[in-house]
Design brief:
The protein is built from 9 helices and no strands. By secondary structure, it is mainly alpha-helical. Helix 2 packs across helix 3. The N terminus and C terminus are likely disordered.
Length: about 210
């Protein structure tokens, strides 16, 4: 298979473009964002076997996957490399096209981008809540909805994100609504006046709206 120079950069982390392309297909098939996919490369025997890695292989940082996709798209090589990998995997039954699910390279890359966006916004809100729990624990405990303590108790990458486009959209909308509710509470009458100046949680403002495009 011919691979463009941008994707086959010598010494690139991840073990070469074919291996990163296969990781991309595997994470699409299992619905994993980049952090969870990188963890699977490091810790799962089935992934190591599929990727031809030694059991002691340390894997790579999750950011390598984002960089790989960026280079793939920038060089226009997603069809050259990823389509060929997808066709091979579909031929072996590793990726199956469902009734309404596309499995072309464009859809695969878009689905992975959605998963990473969901993880990012969820982790942003979780970090904001942790910051507020440190400086105003009693205030937060008094009004925060009980389900938040379960939804944001642990890091987002430690749990599986919803499967299916509609379920993921609903999850993103819920996180966005939670972010908007948090902003209203922080700047509401019953909140300490200094609470709005707590710098670490201000990034939560980006969650006050639709998280995923239709």
């Amino acid at each position: 298979m011919s691979v463009s120079p941008a994707c086959s950069r010598p010494g690139a982390a991840g073990g070469g473009p074919w291996r990163l392309a296969l990781v991309t297909v595997l994470q699409f098939a299992e619905g994993l964002p980049d952090r969870q996919a990188a963890d699977a490369v490091r810790g799962r025997i089935d992934w190591k076997y599929a990727l031809g890695l030694e059991l002691t292989d340390p894997g790579f940082d999750f950011s390598v996957l984002c960089e790989f996709r960026f280079r793939l798209i920038a060089d226009g090589a997603e069809r050259l490399l990823l389509e060929a990998m997808l066709e091979t995997c579909k031929g072996h039954g590793l990726v199956k096209a469902r009734t309404r699910q596309r499995t072309d390279s464009t859809h695969v890359l878009a689905a992975i981008r959605t998963l990473n966006r969901l993880e990012l916004v969820g982790e942003t809100l979780r970090a904001a809540l942790n910051s507020l729990a440190t400086v105003a624990p009693e205030w937060l405990r008094a009004w925060a909805p009980p389900e938040w303590f379960d939804r944001y108790a642990s890091r987002i990458e430690e749990s599986r994100l919803p499967k299916g486009e509609e379920a993921r959209y609903a999850h993103g909308e819920a996180v966005g609504a939670d972010g908007f509710r948090l902003l209203e509470a922080v700047y509401g009458r019953d909140a300490p006046r200094w609470l709005g100046d707590v710098r670490p949680w201000r990034s939560c403002g980006g969650l006050a709206g639709p998280v995923l495009p239709r």
